[in-house]
Amino acid sequence: MLNPLIPPQPPFSANAMFDYPDLTVLPHAYGQPHSRGRLRATPEDFQVREELDFAPDGTGEHVWLWVRKRGANTDWVARQLARRAGVPPGAVSYAGLKDRHAVTEQWFSVHLPGKTDPDWSTDPDSDFAVLEAARHSRKLRRGALRGNAFRIVVREMDGDPTELAARFERIAATGVPNYFGEQRFGRGGWQSGTGRGDVRGTGKSA
Q1: Residues with catalytic roles
Q2: Is the pLDDT of residue 55 over 80?
Q3: Burial 51-90 (b: 16+ CB within 10 A, else e)
Q4: pLDDT tens digits, residue range 144-184?
Q5: d(Cα 38, Cα 47) in Å, to the nearest integer?
Q6: How far apart are CA 68 and CA 103, in angstroms?
Q7: Residue 169 region, left (φ>0) first, then alpha (ψ -120 to 50), else beta?
Q8: pLDDT tens for residues 66-81?
Q9: N or C: which end of the chain has fewer CB within 10 A?
């Protein structure tokens, strides 16, 4: 069972609701870590593949693009696709942001009513490549994905491989706490300020 007790915390500030938690003092699901390793030594060590519940239907004014990117920001790729298609950035959409320091594959949609598809090919040294293009009757909306599949490589591991394998089996069977860190508050923590304004009735919704 998870330990429901959290060690005592330092006194909160006046804005305690929006302070970042100290993740090092939160309880562990399966006891203290007994192995250490290095994550993301290269982008290929962290791979993400987007999964949808449907596929493009083959017709329509939206072009869906299956894109692989490496070391690139999702929004930056969207702007490059808009430039290639000769459309404003708002004509390009995607289901969700993917990690920059990784190799990821995901769908983008480009609104091209009454237009032919441009040449989507890129330079071999480019940070992204269009692997597939297909027409669809609707744009790709934020959150319209089933989930993401991950392939993560941990290098320079120490610890007992047998104990590590046993812990992985327990995680696969029962899961882990859904902790989240500072990245969920946006760059510089600006989203926490927006949320504080919403609570107090002085700000706009994010």
Answers
A1: 99
A2: yes
A3: eeeeebeeebebbbbbbbbbebebeebbebbbebbebeee
A4: 999 999 999 999 988 888 888 898 899 899 888 777 666 66
A5: 15
A6: 7
A7: alpha
A8: 999 999 999 999 999 9
A9: N
> CA–CA separation, 18 vs 15, rounded Å?
6
Q: How far is CA 71 from CA 44, 77, 127, in A?
A: 9, 11, 7
Question: What is the percentage of the chain residues whose pLDDT exceeds 70?
Answer: 74
- Arithmetic mean of pLDDT over the chain: 82
CB 94 within 8 A of CB 109: yes
What's the pLDDT band for 27 if we cut at 50, 70, 90? confident
Tokens in use for 67? Answer: 């894109």
Q: Are 87 and 112 in contact (CB under 8 A)?
A: yes
The residue that leads in pLDDT, 95 or 29, is 95
Show me where the domains of the chain are located. Answer: 1-35+159-206, 43-149
Tokens 């519940």 belong to residue: 53
CA atoms within 13 Å, Cβ hemisphere of 127: 15
